[in-house]
Amino acid sequence: MRVVIADDDYLLREGVAMLLRAESLDVVATADSPETFLKAVDEHEPDVVIVDVRMPPTHTDEGIKAAVEARRRRPGLPVLVLSAYVEQTFATDLLAGGSDRLGYLLKERVGRVEQFLDALQRVVEGGTAIDPEVVAQMLVRSHPDSRLERLTARERDVLRLMAEGLGNTSIAERLFVTEGAVHKHIRNIFAKLDLTPTDRADRRVTAVLRYLESVPKRR
Prior knowledge:
Structural class: alpha/beta
Helix content: 40-55%
Shape: elongated
Domain Response regulatory: 2-122
Number of helices: 10
Order of helices and strands: EHEHEHEHEHEHHHHH
Number of strands: 6
Distance between the termini: 38 Å
CATH topology of the largest domain: Rossmann fold
InterPro entries: CheY-like_superfamily, NreC/VraR/RcsB-like_REC, Sig_transdc_resp-reg_C-effctor, Sig_transdc_resp-reg_receiver, Tscrpt_reg_LuxR_C, WalR-like, WH-like_DNA-bd_sf
Organism: Actinomadura yumaensis
Number of domains: 2
Protein name: Response regulator
Pfam families: GerE, Response_reg
Largest sheet: 6 strands, parallel
Strand content: 5-15%
């Protein structure tokens, strides 16, 4: 797996590179600015990129913009975004804009090596990886869709794990239930949220968006 890392924090950037190389991953380039990051993407054609949200010169959303540009140049490029804290607007837009091959983790998650590597692999394989803390904070701050009040506590647990990007097998393992039970809970969630099999949108993604859509966007 060929990886490009972009972060203006030298210690974090090189620490992540060292961690990945220790796992026999090929870190082909590291970058400390959006410009050097995009140049590395063009030159090395990586299998996945890891990008900080905030980068020079303004340290606002340059990293996100660079990641969007990288995916424009290389459609479908897996992107794992790192942030020091929860960026509500980006986390919500990540799902709303299509979540394939995208991940959003808090930087503290890097220290939990197994979870970090699992998230990276999930993104490379075409899935989604949303930090559990991001989901938790968004839910605490939200004003839920009234339809969500129909869900049982267990169904909300399942939907929360769906929002993190976990598949049914992983959800079953996390909740110590069978996959059959997870399938049943998901069917119930779809029914209670009025999502029918004839809906054009992916019902799984739509259910997660219903769960997060009422989070107020920062202006």
